[in-house]
Amino acid sequence: MTADANPGKNPAGTEEEKVNSGRRWVNTILGTGIVATIASFIYPAIRYVIPPPVSEASNLSVVAAKVGELKDNDGKVFKFGSTPAILIHTPGGDYRAFTAVCTHLGCTVQYRADLHEIWCPCHNGIYDLQGRNVSGPPPRPLAQYQVHIQGEDVVVVRNA
Ligand code: FES
User: Fold this and answer.
1) What's the CA-to-centroid distance between 106 and ligand 1, angstroms?
2) H helices within 50-143, ranges in order?
3) Residue 27: which domain range?
4) Sheet of 144-150: strands edge to edge?
5) Pocket test for ligand 1, best of 119, 122, 140 (most atoms within 8 A of CB)
6) Which residue has its alpha carbon closest to ligand 1 atom 1?
7) Helix or strand or coil: residue 96?
8) Whether residue 38 is found in the same domain as residue 107
9) Reported pTM
10) Which of 44, 64, 152, 153 has the most crowded CB, counting CB atoms within 10 A?
11) Residue 4 lies in a domain
């Protein structure tokens, strides 16, 4: 028979220890629930305020039009990745493509056949057919893209 090291102590724990253990358990459950509830409100708000980065390929190629779709001295805005772009069939018969996002405050530009220029309706900004800002508030030229004719397609390409 071995001697008990703590003869007055109940090996299963005192009644007070059992109550404290139960309280810790309940506090842990409640604490976890409160944290989970707060996280469920905060996480969507953070995801809304800070959207995930749009993964866009650095090289982008889009069929902007069919050959013959645009007559000379005509243009069209098309979706180029996540932003608009503009394809112009110049009076001389060349194709040119630029971003359609104005360098002033980001309005979408359009082709003005009567002026033979690219026009931003927001503040009367004007770009020439090289994409250069020639009048109004735009501070920089429009980024130009490459245009290739592939069969019946007019393909616009942006290189990295
Ligand atoms: S946004 Fe284009 S001129 Fe102001």
Assistant:
1) 6
2) none
3) 10-52
4) 60-66, 153-158, 144-150, 95-99, 83-89, 74-80
5) 122
6) 105
7) strand
8) no
9) 0.66
10) 64
11) no
Within-domain flag for 3: no
Q: Are 91 and 97 in contact (CB under 8 A)?
A: no
Q: Which ligand 1 atom sits nearest the alpha carbon of residue 124?
A: 3
Report if residue 5 sits inside a domain: no
Residues 140 and 109 in one domain: yes
Which of 99, 102, 126, 134 best tests ligand 1's pocket when mutated (most atoms within 8 Å of CB)?
A: 102
Domain of residue 117, CATH code: 2.102.10.10
Give dist(CA 62, CA 145) in Å, integer: 11
Q: Do 102 and 31 share a structural domain?
A: no
Ligand 1 pocket by Cβ (under 6 Å): 102, 104-105, 107, 120, 122-123, 125, 136-138
Instruction: Note whether residue 122 is domain-resident.
Output: yes
pLDDT in tens, 5-62: 455 555 556 777 777 877 788 788 788 888 888 888 887 777 777 765 554 556 799 9
Distance, CA of 9 to CA of 92 (rounded, Å): 102
Residue in 112, 118, 123 to alter for ligand 1 test, most ligand atoms within 8 A of Cβ: 123
